[in-house]
Design a protein that fits this description.
Strand content: 5-15%
Number of strands: 8
Distance between the termini: 24 Å
Number of helices: 8
CATH architecture of the largest domain: 3-Layer(aba) Sandwich
Largest sheet: 4 strands, parallel
Shape: globular
Structural class: alpha/beta
Number of domains: 2
């Protein structure tokens, strides 16, 4: 019997072993929950297993020929727009007779907003006496990874706005831990200038890793210099049931839906101010050092997406 299209989870990778293991554990959990479905996952860089190994394993051990690849990332930055589609095209070339449909990043889905809200409640309840008025006197600083892609950075601001709507927080501000402004200390400075007396720093990351730990350290450093303000750190999203359900939703729509990447404000298609030189720029996959075909780049001009 021909197996159904495999769910192939694609992660960016991290130098933090705990973060990489959280991804691998999440893949194993999805595989166990869906015994009728081949499930695998790999990284495009930094962590084992590389995507090439994950694909080969599904082909060799499960007889998979069709793949539905879901990028386990929150925003559509360069990895989702260029690196992952190019890497999938490379695997299709490496394994003749296989085909790959490419799904959407997770994005500001309502289910993930609920998890973020829960993480904030957990941070507010650490002292054991959270009251309904706590939200009204709490400013949230949502901290994203940060990107050189303005479209990706704008998605984090969208999440902040959606998180603020109807939830009763004094405000939700935005910062980034790398590659984009404002950085974490600047974001905290802004919260203070706006009159915040309690700030919860909320990392917009799926799993723990180097960057969430950097967010935590920068938050602690700023808090030590501003003892008059109650500053707390919330946890990352983590391998929740909501995340598992959303991944399966992305898998189903990848097979059944009419998918479109967010191209309306993509720097590879639209000449945005300061990024005009990126229009039509060819995309290349990231190369994992353990990938034996790492020298074989795939031209991916204008990020036409693998289907």
């Amino acid at each position: 019997m021909t197996p159904p299209p495999a769910l192939l989870l694609v992660g960016h990778g991290t130098r933090d072993e705990a973060g990489a293991e959280a991804f691998r554990s999440f893949v194993r959990e999805l595989d166990e929950r869906n015994p009728e479905l081949p499930v695998g996952g790999g990284f495009i860089e930094l962590s084992p297993p590389p995507l090439a190994d994950a694909v080969a394993e599904l082909i060799e051990s499960r007889g998979v020929r069709q793949f539905a690849a879901v990028p386990l990332v929150l925003v559509s930055a360069g990895h989702a727009k260029g690196d992952i589609p190019a890497a999938l095209a490379r695997e299709e070339k490496r394994h003749p007779g296989t085909a790959y449909a490419y799904g959407r990043p997770l994005g500001p889905h309502p289910a993930l907003l609920e998890v973020l809200e829960r993480r904030l409640d957990e941070a507010l309840g650490e002292d054991g006496h959270r009251s309904p008025s706590d939200r009204a006197t709490t400013t949230v600083l949502l901290v994203g990874r940060g990107s050189t892609d303005p479209d990706a950075n704008s998605e984090v601001f969208k999440v902040a706005r959606l998180l603020w709507e109807g939830r009763g927080y004094a405000g939700v501000e935005t910062a980034f831990v790398s590659l984009a402004a404002p950085d974490v200390p600047s974001g905290l400075d802004r919260c203070a200038r706006l009159g915040a007396r309690r700030i919860v720093v909320l990392p917009y990351f799926l799993f723990e890793g180097v960057l969430p730990e950097r967010v935590r350290q920068q938050t602690e450093g700023w808090a030590a210099a501003h003892p008059e303000i109650d500053v707390r750190s919330a946890d990352v999203i983590g391998p929740t049931q909501e995340l598992a359900d959303l991944v399966m939703e992305r898998y189903r729509e990848t097979l059944e839906g009419d998918l479109r990447m967010n191209c309306d404000s993509c720097v590879y298609r639209i000449a945005l101010p300061g990024f005009e030189d990126r229009v039509g720029l060819p995309q290349q996959p990231h190369h994992h050092p353990e990938d034996p075909a790492h020298s074989h780049g795939h031209h991916h001009g204008g990020h036409a997406h693998t289907r």
